[in-house]
Design a protein that fits this description.
Two copies of one chain form a homodimer. With about 350 residues, the first copy, chain A, is of the alpha+beta class. The first copy, chain A, is about 45% helix and about 15% strand. The model of chain A has no long low-confidence stretch (mean pLDDT about 95).
Chain lengths: ~350, ~350
C-alpha cells in the first residue's frame, strides 16, 4: 500500500507557512462508536466487526477526494514502520495485534486509524503553520463520519474515550517545530519552562525528552476536557508564533555575531553527509538539522529545502529498507544510508 | 629569504623510499670551533665574529651546488617561524637573541645552523627512508667544513659539545614516521616500549609526547658517546623497518576486516577539510593524517600525495601568514586556513 501514497507527502513538502521553523501542524480527534466496549474490554469478534464496518463506512463517507484503506494485518511490518516514520499511524497501532486498519489520503494530510487506543483516531497533518486549515479539514471529516457512525458521547463529558486523558474534546493539536538555534545556544530549556506554564507539552520528534533528535520539538495541548476545541486550538496557535519569533531572533543573532562560526557548523554537517561511508539515523538527523537551518538561512544554496526534507524521511530505517526492497541489519543500514545520502547530494550538485 | 627556497622542499615531496610511512630521514651533527668558548659562556664580540667567519667559510666550502646564507637577525620572526615549520632551523634558534645564522640548500636537504646550542649544527633532511644517502651527504659536508674550520675535538671523547648528551659523535639520526593505523588501533604504545629497549627515543612531530599531532612520530638515537657513527646509523636503519612492517600489517588488517569503517574515517576527514569554515592547525593535521593514509591505501584517489604533503606544510601558522603576506591572529588564521584548504582541494577535483 505504501506505493499508493505520494512518495513524500504534503507535510514534508516544506511549502506551508513559516515552514523554515514549523514543520507541520497536526490535529487528531479520538472517537468511539456507541454501543461497543472500549478496546481494552472488547471481544475479538466485536473488534473484527468494528474494523470491517468502520473501514466500509469511512470509505463511503466522502472525507477526501481519494482514500486508501488497509487492514494492517494484511501489511508487512516494514510497511507499518514506514507509516510510523511518516507519522501516519502510531507505533502502538503498528505493533498491535488483532484486527485494525487505517484509511489514508494519498498525500498523507488525512489518516483515520481504526482500533488504535480508541475505535477511531482521526488525524489531519499539514505542512507548516496551518492551525485553521487543519481544523477546518478535520471538522469536516468528523462531521461526515458522524453522519455514518454513532459516536459515544456524553452531554456532560463530551466525547468518551478509552483513556480519561482524552475525554471531552478528544482533541490533540500539535505542531512540530525545528529549533536548532535555540538548542545550539542552550536556550531550549526556556521554551520548556514557558510552554509548561500555559499547559502545553513539549516532546521530541519520536517522543524523546529534552534532547530531541534533529532538534525537532512537538508542542501540544495537555488538556482535552474543559476548554472548547476552538480554545485549545487558539492556545497553541497564539503561543507557537512566540517560539517562532524566539528561534528567528536567535538565528539572526548567530548570523550577525558569528556568521563564520555558524557557516562552519552548517557546512561541516553538510560535509559529513556528503562523505561518510557509515552513518546512523540519529547522526543523519543531527546533520540534516544543521543543513536545514543552513538552507533556510541562505548559507547553503546548492540544495533545495524539499531535498533536505525528503532526506529526513527516506533515511529513516524503514524507508531505507523499503527503498532497497529488503530487510537490512543495522550495519548494512548505516552503510546503505551513507551511500544513499551521498548519491542524493551528489545528484543535486 | 624564504622565497629563495623551493616552495615545498625535498623532504615533503613524498618521493623517497617507503614514503607511505617514512616521511623523512634526518641526521644532524653538533660541532664546535676549537679555541672558542661554548655558546653558554661566549662573549658577544666572539659570538659575532663566529657568526661572520663561519658564514663566510660555509659559503665557500663547496658543501652544496647552491647555498643561501642568512643572518637570522636580518630576518623577520615570521620568516624564522617558517623555517621552523620546515624543520630547517630549531625553535630555539628562531627565538634566540644575538648573532646567529643559517645556511640552506634551496631544496632544504641541507641546513647548517650557526650559533644554535653549538657553534655549528649540520643537518641533512631527506624524503623517506634514506639513512645511507643522508649519511653520505652529511659526511661529505662535515669533511668539507673541517677543511676550513678547526673543530673542538678530543682524542678521548670525540667531538666536544656544549651539552654533554651530544659529546662523542655529536650525531643524532631521526626518522619521522606516519603511524595512523597504530594510533587508531591503540598499538602505538607497543612501539614506545619496544623502541626504548634498543635505546631509541620517540617524540611527536613538534616534540610532543604520546599523542603526536597528525600521528607523526620521530624515532631517534639517545646515545652519542660510545658507538661509532655507523653503529648509531645501523641501529635506527635496522630497527625502523620493523615499525614500518608493523604499521603496514595493521593497515592491511584494517582494510581486510573493516574496509568500510576505514573508508568512513578517511572520507569524513576529507569532508571536514573540504567543508569547514574555521579550522585549527591541530585539527587540520589530524584530518590530513587520515587523508594521507587514505591516499596511500588507494581509498582516496582524487588527490595526489604531494598535495597532501603540501597542505601539511602550508596550513601551519607561519606559512599561512607568509602566503597571506601579513600577520593574522588566531581566529583569522582558522578562517583563512579553512578557506585555503577548501580551495586547494576544490582545485584538485
Amino acid at each position: 500500500m505504501i506505493d499508493e501514497l505520494d512518495p513524500i507527502g504534503e507535510w514534508l513538502s516544506g511549502t506551508g507557512p513559516e515552514s523554515d521553523i514549523v514543520i507541520s501542524t497536526r490535529i487528531r480527534l479520538a472517537r468511539n462508536v456507541a454501543g461497543y466496549p472500549f478496546l481494552t474490554r472488547i471481544k475479538e469478534d466485536q473488534r473484527s466487526h468494528l474494523e470491517r464496518t468502520l473501514g466500509e463506512r469511512i470509505a463511503v463517507a466522502g472525507v477526501a477526494d481519494r482514500l486508501i484503506y488497509a487492514n494492517l494485518n494484511k501489511t508487512t511490518p516494514l510497511e507499518r514502520e514506514c507509516l510510523v516514520e511518516r507519522h501516519l499511524i502510531s507505533k502502538d497501532l503498528a505493533s498491535a495485534r488483532g484486527e485494525r486498519g487505517v484509511a489514508l489520503e494519498p498525500r498523507g494530510t488525512l489518516s483515520i486509524m481504526v482500533n488504535e487506543e480508541d475505535h477511531l483516531r482521526i488525524q489531519v497533518l499539514r505542512s507548516g503553520f496551518q492551525p485553521d486549515a487543519a481544523w477546518e479539514q478535520i471538522s469536516a471529516v468528523d462531521r461526515r463520519l458522524e453522519e455514518r457512525v454513532e459516536y459515544a458521547f456524553s452531554p456532560r463529558f463530551g466525547y468518551l474515550t478509552s483513556c480519561p486523558t482524552n475525554v471531552g474534546t478528544g482533541m490533540r493539536v500539535s505542531m512540530m517545530l525545528h529549533l536548532p538555534a535555540l538548542v545550539m545556544t542552550k536556550q531550549i530549556e526556556k521554551v520548556f519552562h514557558a510552554v509548561a506554564k500555559v499547559s502545553l507539552a513539549v516532546r521530541g520528534f519520536y517522543g524523546e525528552g529534552t534532547h530531541a533528535l534533529g532538534d525537532f520539538y512537538q508542542i501540544s495541548n495537555q488538556v482535552t476536557l474543559g476548554p472548547s476545541e476552538e480554545q485549545i486550538l487558539r492556545t497553541i496557535a497564539d503561543y507557537v508564533p512566540q517560539i517562532i519569533k524566539f528561534e528567528r531572533n536567535v538565528r539572526e543573532t548567530l548570523i550577525n555575531e558569528n556568521r563564520v562560526g555558524l557557516e562552519d557548523r552548517v557546512w561541516r554537517a553538510f560535509g559529513m553527509l556528503e562523505r561518510a561511508r557509515l552513518i546512523t539515523s540519529e547522526e543523519t538527523l543531527d546533520y540534516l538539522s544543521a543543513v536545514r537551518m543552513g538552507v533556510n538561512l541562505g548559507l547553503i544554496d546548492r540544495i533545495p529545502i524539499s531535498a533536505v526534507n525528503e532526506l529526513f524521511l527516506l533515511t529513516q530505517p524503514a524507508h531505507l529498507q523499503q527503498l532497497n526492497g529488503r530487510e537490512l541489519d543495522t550495519p548494512e543500514r548505516d552503510e546503505n544510508r551513507a551511500e544513499y545520502v551521498r548519491r542524493r547530494l551528489a545528484s543535486l550538485n
